[in-house]
Design goal:
Strand content: 25-35%
Helix content: 25-40%
Order of helices and strands: EHEEH
Structural class: alpha+beta
Number of strands: 3
Largest sheet: 3 strands, antiparallel
């Protein structure tokens, strides 16, 4: 993927991330996901009362040239 990338979506829901990437793939739009944890480093040691389903943020990127088209496709979900 080109260095020129556009962020099209941010979610903490891994299933939503998979659905978006599958949709983009159907339309031959390559995507990249950058993940960061909001509980690091404690996640590895276990922090009480942390909902692990919301512990990660998934940033979905596409090539800048495909950005507009990718955003339009998100309305199909």
């Amino acid at each position: 993927m080109s260095i020129l990338k556009k962020e099209i979506y941010v979610t903490r829901d891994i299933d939503k991330c998979y659905k978006i990437r599958a949709l983009l793939s159907e339309y031959n739009i390559k995507s990249v996901v950058i993940t960061n944890t909001i509980t690091n480093p404690g996640r590895h040691h276990g922090i009480p009362f942390i909902d692990m389903s919301a512990a990660y943020e998934y940033h979905i990127f596409v090539n800048k040239k495909e950005g507009k088209r990718a955003l339009e496709l998100l309305h199909l979900l």
